Amino acid sequence: MHESKENSLPLRFSKTARKDAKNKEIRYEPTWESIDSRPIPQWYDEAKIGIFLHWGVFSVPSYAGAWFWYFWKGPKPVREVVDFMKNNYRPGFTYVDFAPMFTAEFYNPDQWADIFKASGAKYVVLTTKHHEGFCNWATKYSWNWNSVDVGPRRDLVGDLAKALRKKGLAFGAYHSMFDFFNPMFLRDQANHFTTQEFVREKALPELHELVNNYQPDLIWSDGDWMAPSSYWNSTHFLVWLYNDSPVKDRIVVNDRWGSDAECKHGGYLSCSDHYNPKKLQKRKFEDATTMDKYAWAYRRNINIEDLNTMEEVTTLIAQVVSCGGNLLINVGPTKEGTIIPAFQERLKQMGQWLSVNGEGVYATKPWTHQNDGVSRDVWYTSTRADNGTVINVYAIVLSWPESSNLTLASPVTTANTTVTMLGYNTPFKWSPLPNSGLQIQIPAIPFNQLPCKWAWVFKLTGISN
């Protein structure tokens, strides 16, 4: 039984889920059953593509990722990281000494917003605080370990939130529930999480502060896995968020609210990192993955081949969106506050592809089939009428057909079926296959007249399944 501290926390929640007779407002109760019943806001389901940003003091060493401090000073130090510090920094150097070097002197939130807008993303999630505990905003709960008191000397969170909203992008706040070496957390951990000092004094006050000060559209919770949601008081926080917070109607959350909640409860399911099930899911999910295949934070020793190619990026988009998910793809800014050109180029290419093929991505719904039965490099999406009737089917073809014919086994054609390719005006001829499916006749299209370089989206109308 956990020691309850909820009465001393700034939380408000209803006893039962109900519809208020006066304003017709649904009220949620602090149970997972009630919280899980809340629909995902439409904006998030339709957005499909987001950008993730891992940025903090760990961006100064920019080596071995966002867990650098733990790899160096944790209970099981990583030899590579220990040697890196020994060979490159003076004796007695501490992790705290990195903070003044987190300068962000080239940080231009408006430029970042332009880059992310051009990428085709609809929302951006910034690490407001990672496991190192350093807060990227002017917080009252982390004195001298935040971006206003030390390092950048500015409100990184607030500045980016404003810039994104000017561009029509939604703002998401990543927040780690725990801090690696915070004494209050370590005491709660030593007490087997029967006490909640850290939750009461830091974790939940930070979340309330973020919501009230910046009114994010999304909260991406993390760092929850060591303790159950009852320790974190997660259901009580979420009920306040859904019932009484300033973002109650629009806010979206993930599932990382305790060891008993991950991949089961909360808002959408983020499950494990790089979660790409490649099959239709019963609940909304998100694949949080990285442009750099080996790290979430920027690495100074990154090589160009470490980045996902555009072929790999379009494959991820096709697989995830076809199965009902969103893709949240991460780039790590530098300590100076720049997005390196290699990341910029890949994001720009993603935007170029989406500018042509977004009709088959944004606001789509899963179809009756996700992957084609014959052409395995084909993934399907659809648009539907309010009554659920399929209007259009989109076949995202990852590899250009080697012959002059493209065979699709899954669609059931009718006399009214038409086939076009997004970005190419001329309709394609086709013929039905004996049982189901169709064969599309691909004309000789000059390479310079193809609408895009990676993954081509065929639009099918008049499909009966």
Whole-number tally of structural domains: 2
CATH superfamily of the largest domain: Glycosidases
Amino- and carboxy-terminal Cα gap: 52 Å
User: What is the number of strand segments?
Assistant: 16
Q: Helix amount, in percent?
A: 25-40%
Major sheet: 7 strands, parallel
Average of the residue pLDDT scores? 94
How much beta, percentage-wise? 15-25%
CATH class of the largest domain: Alpha Beta
The number of helical runs is 12
**Structural class by helix and strand composition:** alpha/beta
Helix and strand element order: EEHHEHHHEHEHHEHHEEHEHEEEEEEE
Radius of gyration: 24 Å
Unreliable residue runs: 1-18
The CATH topology of the largest domain is given as TIM Barrel
Question: What's the architecture of the largest domain in CATH terms?
Answer: Alpha-Beta Barrel
Strand order of the largest sheet: 7-6-5-4-3-9-8
Give the overall silhouette: globular
Structure description:
The chain is an alpha/beta fold and 465 residues long. It folds into two domains: 6-360, Glycosidases (TIM Barrel, Alpha-Beta Barrel), CATH 3.20.20.80; 378-461, Golgi alpha-mannosidase II (Immunoglobulin-like, Sandwich). It is built from twelve helices and 16 strands. The protein has helices spanning 32-36, 42-47, 68-73, 79-88, 109-118, 156-166, 183-190, 197-214, 229-232, 234-243, 310-322, 341-357; strands at residues 18-19, 26-27, 49-53, 123-129, 170-176, 218-222, 252-253, 285-290, 325-331, 378-384, 390-397, 405-408, 418-421, 430-432, 438-441, 456-461. The strands form four sheets. It has a seven-stranded parallel sheet with strand order 7-6-5-4-3-9-8. Strands 10-11-16-13 form a four-stranded antiparallel sheet. A three-stranded antiparallel sheet has the order 12-15-14, with no helix packed on it. A hairpin with a 6-residue loop joins strand 1 and strand 2 (26-27). Helix 5 crosses helix 6 (156-166), helix 5 (109-118) crosses helix 12 and helix 7 crosses helix 8. The longest helix has 18 residues, at 197-214. The termini are far apart. 47% of the residues are buried. Belongs to the glycosyl hydrolase 29 family.
